[in-house]
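User: Teach me something about this protein's shape.
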Amino acid sequence: MERFNYQMMTLARDARELTQSELADRLQIRQGTLSKYETGFSEPPASFVEDLAEALNFPRSFFYVSGRPYGLPP
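Assistant: First, the predicted structure itself:
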């Protein structure tokens, strides 16, 4: 089973130079909800990942890469 990698979400958002609030606005969700997904506190629904991939212009599969991105804190 694929597992959402919240660290890749942070990496993608940072790559697009967006704040959590800016991305939440694009996705029409609350910033607090986005924060829970980005910290791994909550597992996002598949529909969110589709919207996220489109909003950040990354392939959906990017958010399911296993492991921790090099250079990010543990």
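Now, about its shape. The CA atoms of residues 26 and 55 lie 7 Å apart. The two ends are 23 Å apart (CA to CA). If you'd like, I can walk through any region in more detail.
User: That's plenty for now, thanks!
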